[in-house]
Amino acid sequence: MSGAGPDVLNHPFKDGRLALEVACRSKDWRLVQALVLSGAAVNGAFQGPKDGAMVALHAACHDGALTIIYLLLEKAPKSYDDRNWGYYSFPLSFAAFRGELDLLARLLTSGADPNLKDHAGRSPLHDVSNNIAGDVNIAQCLLDFKADPNLTSNDGDTPLHHACSCGHVEIVKCLLRHNADPSTRDKNGKTALQLAREENGEDSEIVKILLGHNSQ
């Protein structure tokens, strides 16, 4: 980065993008590191395509660049709660959906809000419950940091709705232990039990778990 000072590095291109954002989107952590060491503003705002000003950490989360995420968190640990355009929305959402337990714990310990919602009203607990892998350790970590198991998305879904639909037995058990309400209905008027029956069958383990819970 010889010859390029902070004023140059932090001056937006015509399209509103910054050099650091472009580097993050390229997933080139060495380039990101070089830019930061040369004075690129880690929290410098660039123009996101939908929701206005964003910072480099958002771009890294959007593209799943884990090494860059850690690098940026060291330099800007307070940008973890900003919402973002893109699939992962914000750092904690990225960590939950991708099953990155170490990153998740680091963000939560640093004060990230476990109940922050994305544009669709989904919390990180929704993300892990709706993930194919369905990592119960991620769910447990979020709940340990006071994630609300009864938050509803814009569609009226709770994390329990998602976990039942996806067949995540251990997450269902975990949510119920933390007082998830199985009687909540989504926008179609369906409870978690109804979804479990539709997606997994009447004789499935999840249906039996929910019936047993309801009888208590």
UniProtKB/TrEMBL annotation:
SMART domains: ANK
PANTHER family, A to Z: ANKYRIN REPEAT CONTAINING, ANKYRIN REPEAT DOMAIN-CONTAINING PROTEIN 16
Database matches in Pfam families: Ank_2 (PF12796)
InterPro entries, alphabetized: Ankyrin_rpt, Ankyrin_rpt-contain_sf
Keywords: ANK repeat, Repeat
The protein's name in its UniProt record: Ankyrin
Organism placement in taxonomy: Eukaryota, Fungi, Dikarya, Basidiomycota, Agaricomycotina
PROSITE patterns: ANK_REP_REGION, ANK_REPEAT
ANK repeats (start-end): 87-119, 155-187, 188-216
